[in-house]
UniProtKB/TrEMBL annotation:
Belongs to the mitochondrion-specific ribosomal protein mS33 family. Pfam families: MRP-S33. PANTHER family: MITOCHONDRIAL RIBOSOMAL PROTEIN S33, SMALL RIBOSOMAL SUBUNIT PROTEIN MS33. It is found in: Mitochondrion. This is Small ribosomal subunit protein mS33. Keywords: Mitochondrion, Ribonucleoprotein, Ribosomal protein. It comes from the Eukaryota. GO terms for cellular component: mitochondrion; ribonucleoprotein complex; ribosome. InterPro entries: Ribosomal_mS33 (IPR013219). Residues 78-107 are annotated as: Disordered.
Amino acid sequence: MTANITASRLAALVKTRCQIFQTAYNPTSARTGAKYLRARLRGPSMVKYYPPVANIAELARTYKNAGLVDFAEAQRLKDVEDKKRRGKGAPPKAKDKGQSRRTARRR
């Protein structure tokens, strides 16, 4: 009492089953990444787990009258000033197209 089921009937059955249960029809078994796309996102849980990092610069901007000093930023500004004094700073920005170094080189 065994019935022979053809491959086309079996494929039609699988296709119908995918439509009914709303799953992806993948007859060639190609890798789709559906397992990872269905998975819950990890980012929001990680953001909730780790406490917020105290940022000195942000706190100093928020509370200007508190007198908070970001020592790393103060040191950086001092170093930039020292480099400018020695002539090693960033070149000045061009105010208009005529002052640009690129256009001066083309002339």
